[in-house]
Amino acid sequence: MMKLAVVLMIVGAMQVSATGFSQNVTLAERNAPLEAVFKKIEQQTGFYFWYESKTLQGARKVSLDLRQTPIRDALNLCLAGQPFSYTIIDKTIIINDAGKQEWGDQHVAPPVVNISGVVVDEHGGPLEGAAIGLKGTTRGTNTNKNGHFSLQASSVSGILVVSYLGMVTQEVSFTGEKELRIVLIRNVMEKQEIVVVGYGTQKKQAITGSVASANLKLYQNVPVNNILETAKGIVPGLNIGGVSKAGEVASISVRGENTMRSGTAPLIVVDGAIFRGSLNDIPPTDVESFTVLKDASAAAVYGSRSANGVILIETKRGTGINGKPKFNVNVGYGAVNEQQRLRVYDEKGYLQRVLDYRDANGLTADPNNIAAYLQPIEATNYNATSDHQATLKDPYNLFRQTGQSLNATASVSNRTDKTEYYISGNVIKQKGVIKNDLYNHYSLRVKLSSDLTNWFRLGINAYYSLKDYPGATIYGISGGGSPSSPYQFSPYASLIGQDGKYLQFPQTTTSFNSPYWQIPDQVYNRQNNLNGIVTATIKVPWVEGLSYNLTTSITQNWNERGSFYGPQTVTGLPKNGSGDVYYDRNTYVLIDQLVKYNKTIGDHSFDATLLYSTEDYKLFSQSSHGENFADPTLGIYGLSTGQTQTVNTGGTKSAAVGEMARLTYSFKNKYSLTGTVRRDGYSAFSENHKYGVFSSAGANWQLSQERFMRHATFIDNLALRASYGTNGNQSISPYGTLARMGNSFYFYNGTSFVTTSFVNNLGNNELKWEYTQGINLGIDFAVFGNRISGAIDWYDKTTRNLIFPLSMPSTSGFTTISTNLGKIGNKGIEVNLNTVNVKSKTFTWSSNIAFARNWNKLITAYGPDLKTGIEPDRPSDNLFIGKTLGTIYDYQVTGMWQQADKDNGGIMTGMLPGTYKLLDVNNDGKITSDKDRVFLGDTKPACTWGFTNTFRYKDLSLMVYVYSMWGGNGHFLSGSNTPYNDGFANNPSINHIVYDYWTPANSGAVFPRLNYQTAAAYKGVKYFDRSFIKVQKIALTYNLTTLAKRYGINDMSCSLSADNLFTYAPHWIGLDPETNSGLTDGSIPTLRTIMAVFTFNF
């Protein structure tokens, strides 16, 4: 005892503040000596072990997998089944023989209950060596080779802590059961351990490329209508646009624009198979993981599809409790309205605008005679009351509604020793803010897999969805109408005539049709998606680690839409009705055959994957049109009665084949190398260029596992990554390299004609694949007990052989030909930072910051001029060498010409007071397009970032998510280069969105005079910075599990959230700068949603 006391005095004198150490332990050990485990605990926690050297002589080796486990629970698991006990005094852990009581109170009540059971994996296989600890005590044991354990406890109830390397540690309650069956789930989705990659999973420390995952736990009980909401602002480099209509699909891109004409959307892979539907088809509650492959090394396994990145989605699998089904119900309901609305002039502002317009055009503008300047209908309504009250106070309200959103999901799942299933149904009903903007979505998923033998596993994954857009809005059947029309109503318009019908021209002027005359009488638009995936996995019994996987995916989409415009519509009036019906059906068959082999020999690990893939795609379409109906009553169901009828049919077929090999080698789990090569063939290319080869190589160095880092105890993880590779893009039409024929008529004898055929599109047998090659350098880190973690990536990539329509001389008889030309470069930096700012027993505050900066430029287009050797810009195609694809090349506005400039003779020839002053670049006294335009920035944002904070107090949690975009310019009103020159802006009989235009009395206005189009040089547009900070989501969740268990419900929570709550854009004029980059008079406002969600698990 004296010896022990002396040691304790020395140790106590050496103690310093331990606030820099963690009270939790993270370990992953397999058959490690107990003493070595003790040393690692000392390094992480600041605790010190004391024991006599002979004490550990009989210690057994330890296998553990702990993640931020409290130190007492970690010690219990370390000593489970060992002949030792421990005592903690201050920062010292004393290890004694189990029966020895040298220090403190080590008395344990005699055991009275025997707890026994078996520990198995998710497939029913026994787990040998699993650590079993009785929580709150030092008792524990390990499972035998059959996974069986037996443990004595002093009470009939308690909690067992069960741990096994590579599995999720579980706490299992017992209440007197004779035999427990404990199923440990492999840690396949844990971000710090196993990561979902193309055609499988990989250990985090073996990842060589740039792979990022959305933290779905943030949205576990938070209202989400689309799975993309969980990744926006969370995954750096993933750009997701906003939505403003019911059922609208957001735009997606990864790491900038890699192509000019082929589209920038990434490849979507769901449950291992290429997905041919919309991400709106997948209910968020069905998703288990959402992973983005961003660089060549990570995405190279998908070859010709991966230049724009790859999104991997894994849907949920069966789970259950002791073989009992698990039921989940999630119901959300909310209100939808506009985040912001544009204002139109009231009667006073409208009348003033009429006078200002006349004055600007040199016409009389007498306020006392204003009725004479109005249209007849307007004048009648103006004179109808003595105070000239408007007949339409807020015309926009005529076409708006308070939107609604309903999202309900129910699922049942289960897992037994050999079989698991997951079945879910989802219903989404949305009403947009424009009348009849409706969206209904119904889906059903059935996912089943079973071990038919110990070496053969069969899985079936079936999914069906129906998207229905049943509303007839002012946008027409496909959103092609003009949403600006509600803003054009004069305050003195008349909607309905004396016959009780809507007037076509509510303001007399024929330049404005009533929006009611733009709405079709009938409309339907239904999109069906049916997908079935069958997987068969064979583990070759006589070769450990060798398996064969066959995946067959069949997807069929069929779409049907129709519209009918009766005689009381603008479209149907001149044709006495006009109707269209369209139908298409496409079938996509994918067959993937995978051979996988993994082997560990000492410190060397090998993981090899071979793939052979085939794809077939078929499309059939049919459209019918009818007009001039004697009786249009039948609408789209009577197209055959039209005097004019046309029927068109079409179809396409394409096929693809792919072969891929990937090898990953790891040494001591510290050094990893990955090499991938893929060869793709696509039927759309010519015989000489039908195949493309894409490859990549990458390395990962786990720096934190090096011996020279062992004293940096504050570092939990530090890894360096580097990769280089090529990807491809096959986004051309199935017959894009072939010449195509068209039909026409040849007239002869003045009246007779014959049908003729001619080549209307040139083919190009030399058209090649687009290639993107790039490098990625990254660092992963975690420090201070994982309180701060994240990743930093830098990338530089170049796309060549761009598929582009090259202009042809007019003498050729053709306008363009598809060819390969030019290069585009993209480089950037991405930062993802996770922090745990405050953590206590009852309160936690954690944050996530995701930042992305992209530099995009056109390296070359058509090549250098043969005479000068310098490549010229192509302003007509908006292509500028060394500039971004979104470069703004226009006249620079330096001010506004004023009346004083005209009076003193200083105004430029052809200009008027109230028109923009433009920079005269060459000082020749005139403004010309070839000499006076300059670069004015970029339409694309310079960078984006998201900042998410989550606060948890007991059962209450609050999430606040802020999203921001910096840079990117746009202009106000219409999309033309002269936005104040169209009839809308300058027609005095049409109302307008309120904007600050120039008059002699308002000389400091932002925008020019109303008759700007009459100036000799009506050039120039004022651009505004679109930078903004948006409160994207606030969600408050309350966990009611304690209350729910009284009623037999395992888990229950309720949430209240607000989306698109507020946007701060100090320099922008108009609607949401995120979704409306310039065209705001014809844009739909961004939707704000307030939603409540209830979740039950039982």
Description:
- Residues 1-18 form the signal peptide.
- This protein has 1098 residues and is mainly β.
- Among the domains are: 24-183, Immunoglobulin-like (Sandwich), CATH 2.60.40; 520-683, no CATH class.
- It contains 9 helices and 52 strands.
- The chain has a 22-stranded antiparallel beta barrel. The protein has a 5-stranded mixed beta sheet with strand order 15-20-21-18-19. A 4-stranded antiparallel beta sheet has the order 8-7-10-11, with helices on one face.
- The chain is globular, with a radius of gyration of 35 Å.
- The two termini are 55 Å apart.
- The relative contact order is 0.10.
- Residues 1-21, 101-111, 188-192, 476-482 and 975-985 have low confidence and may be disordered.
% residues in beta strands: over 45%
Shape: globular
Q: Ends: how far apart?
A: 55 Å
User: What's the Cα radius of gyration?
Assistant: 35 Å
Secondary structure: helix percent: under 10%
Major pleated sheet:
22 strands, antiparallel, barrel
Mean pLDDT: 82
| E-strand count | 52
Helix-strand category: mainly beta
Summary, kept brief:
The protein is mainly beta and 1098 residues long. Among the domains are: 24-183, Carboxypeptidase-like, regulatory domain (Immunoglobulin-like), CATH 2.60.40.1120; 520-683, no CATH class.
Secondary-structure topology with pairs:
Layout: H1 2-14, E1 24-32, H2 34-45, E2 48-50, E3 62-70, H3 71-78, E4 84-89, E5 92-97, E6 113-120, E7 131-134, E8 140-142, E9 148-153, E10 157-163, E11 170-175, E12 180-183, E13 194-197, E14 200-203, E15 211-213, E16 238-240, E17 252-254, E18 267-270, E19 273-274, E20 287-293, H4 296-299, E21 310-315, E22 320-321, E23 324-338, H5 347-360, H6 376-382, E24 403-415, E25 419-431, E26 438-451, E27 456-468, E28 522-539, E29 546-565, E30 578-601, E31 604-629, E32 642-667, E33 671-682, E34 691-702, E35 715-729, E36 740-748, E37 752-761, E38 770-783, E39 788-807, E40 816-839, E41 843-860, E42 887-890, E43 893-896, H7 899-903, E44 916-918, E45 934-938, E46 943-953, E47 956-966, E48 969-971, H8 983-986, E49 1023-1025, E50 1028-1039, H9 1041-1044, E51 1051-1064, E52 1087-1097
Parallel strand pairs: 2-5, 6-12, 18-21
Antiparallel strand pairs: 1-3, 4-5, 6-9, 7-8, 7-10, 10-11, 13-14, 15-20, 16-17, 18-19, 20-21, 22-23, 23-24, 23-52, 24-25, 25-26, 26-27, 27-28, 28-29, 29-30, 30-31, 31-32, 32-33, 33-34, 34-35, 35-38, 36-37, 38-39, 39-40, 40-41, 41-46, 42-45, 43-44, 46-47, 47-50, 48-49, 50-51, 51-52
Subcellular location: Cell outer membrane
Domain Secretin/TonB short N-terminal: 51-95
Family: Belongs to the TonB-dependent receptor family.
